[in-house]
Design a protein that fits this description.
Elements (H helix, E strand, L loop, with lengths): L2 H20 L3 H11 L7 H13 L1 H9 L11 H16 L5 H15 L4 H16 L1 H11 L1
Length: 146
């Protein structure tokens, strides 16, 4: 897990949170982040990809999530919702990122930005989504342990 990627994810979660709450155009939020935040040592291209692609695939990402949620998606804490959507995007479209890294990053961000026990909720949901979207990778990892 590169620190530049971790920083990109942190910024992307904050930007996605802002997008969810304000409904502002993603390009405006992106520009604001690039100007107002310290983007040094951030994988800016990865930040841009996450910020642009999550809204583009929103319905598909939410479809993966809703079957594992205990409430409607719009009732999930906005920070946790942003983390879940971004992590689900990575699980589905960024197969170059190991599923364990995606889950770990999501949990860590939930610890930093989310509610007191939000990281447990995020962990449980992402684990189930990973089993669905990355079943081959998970089975291969299990075979290696044997």
């Amino acid at each position: 897990m590169s620190k530049a990627r971790s920083k990109a994810r942190r910024n992307a979660v904050q930007a996605l949170y802002q997008w969810q709450l304000t409904g502002a155009d993603v390009s405006v939020i992106e520009e604001q982040f690039l100007i107002e935040h310290d983007m040094q040592n951030v994988d800016v291209e990865y930040f841009r990809e996450l910020l642009r692609e999550v809204p583009l695939h929103l319905h598909e990402l939410d479809d993966h999530l809703i079957e594992y949620l205990d409430r409607p998606i719009n009732e999930v804490d906005p920070v946790e919702r942003a983390i879940l959507r971004m992590s689900t995007y990575e699980l589905e479209f960024r197969l170059d990122v190991p599923y364990k890294a995606v889950i770990n990053e999501g949990v860590e961000m939930a610890k930093i930005f989310g509610a007191e026990h939000g990281h447990k909720y995020v962990n449980g949901i992402l684990d189930r989504v990973a089993r669905k979207l990355r079943s081959t990778e998970i089975q291969a990892a299990a075979q290696k342990k044997k």
